[in-house]
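We now fix the convention by which a protein and its fold are recorded. The integers have meaning only within a learned vocabulary of local backbone shapes. The record below shows the convention in full.
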Amino acid sequence: MRFDVFTLLPEVIEPYLQSSILKRARQAGLLEVNVHNIRDWTTDKHHVCDDTPYGGGGGMVMKPDPIFKAVEGVLGAPPSCPVFLLTPQGRTFNQQVAQELTQYDHLALLCGRYEGIDERVREYLVTDEISIGDFVLTGGELPALVLIDAVARLVPGVLGDPLGAENDSFTSGLLEYPHYTRPPEFRGWQVPEVLLSGDHARIARWRREQSLLRTWQRRPDLLEKVDLTEADRLYLRNLERAQRAGKKDQDG
């Protein structure tokens, strides 16, 4: 899968791409990430990419000309792949959106800076807009890395375990179950017996119930969207009964 990232700060992007899973994926040819400095498409000696906003107001605005020249210089006119703007005004990024983006073999990511970008970039160049949450950062570089990381690990072969991404939180609609590794006892704290049993059916059910429990405790809103089995529903009803009984005991 190929990503082309357009930014004013390529030095922010590159170090993360040179580490761990993303580095190995690039070396194996599973992932291609090209980082382009928008300043390289300016024509003045100071490589200016921003200017004051029409109508007044605080902050600076990224100029349209360098952005159009950068994107079209790399991807053609019109661009040969979807162009995603990283902005707080975009649709919220989540695991389902990450899965959706794997349908593309090539994506362009545009990182904003300053107060924002000239609206004509949004209207005539950008395909879609993505936000990683309801907060404001100083630029789109961190959101671009979040998106690349989340999407890349869904590309077949990127993770060492072919089933790794399938068990992640949110992939099934539930939060992920707890994980344990050696030693079986640490400071008196034991690994759950079922995980040492070798009984794969029991382990699978325990993990499912732990995912249900964790989701019920931390993100009950997610349960409304999950395709639950009858066994799942029975387990959740038992949790609710236990909760009501506990409240009764506390009330005396």
The longest strand covers residues 83-92.
